[in-house]
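Suppose a colleague, Dr. K., hands you the sequence of a protein chain of 151 amino acids and asks what its three-dimensional shape might be. Before reaching for any lab equipment, you can write down a predicted structure in token form. Begin with the sequence itself:
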Amino acid sequence: MHRLEEDQLAVWRAFVNAHATVIKRIEADLSDQRREPLTTYDVLVALYQSPDKKLRMSDLANKVVLTRSGLTRVIERLEREGLVERERTEEDRRGAFAVLTREGKREFLRTWPVYSEGIYNYFVSVLDEEERKAVEKALTKVSEALKKGEG
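The predicted structure, expressed as tokens, is then:
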């Protein structure tokens, strides 16, 4: 077991606290503007950016920060709201696609300005260019190292 030094714990705490604070602020802005919460918006983004605005549920689960059961609940709610439809696959009776509806696309586009403003106000504007590059480089390095380990 590695003994963590105080500076190592400090960088971890700074990352966790900054993330939590920024997300909390953006969630509050979305709520104030009566927009979808970030977990839902994450699903809309993944579908919007996919070919034909649809993804297999298993592929969607790999693109969002939700558990599979959490994703199922979000998709069920989005279906009730008319933002997403589920479509059975021809080749696999158990498989299904999540498909972004026209209203889902509209909600995605209505939500983006609130979300992007939050990203800018609570994160981007606080850091200078050099700091942004360093944060991106460091977090990309962590992400890529962990992806290689999944292998």
